[in-house]
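Hey, quick one: can you model this chain's 3D structure?
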Amino acid sequence: QVVSIWAGTNGKLDEVAVEDVLRFERELLDYLGRNTEILTTLRDTNVLDDATVAALGEGIDKFKLEFQTGEGKPLASVGTERFAAIEPEEVHQEQIVKTKR
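Sure thing. Here's the predicted structure for all 101 residues.
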């Protein structure tokens, strides 16, 4: 629970789609358990110190590179889409006119 709450309150879940959050959390905990000592440290010490926070942030960032969204896209690509620029003549401005009764 500590990992999930910390990730949510520190913006680590911001780019995860709502429908992917539960799977992200489950897979993140599995990843951290297999690849880091963070969960063991938290379980043994019950302390979230600066070193553990730094390791946790780094572990989550590494996991994000591997996570696939429900659409099958890597999470790292979310928000990095590139679009062609719109030509100035294609931009149309609307004018709001207020009338008196």
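One thing worth noting: Helices lie at 2-9, 21-35, 38-45, 50-66.
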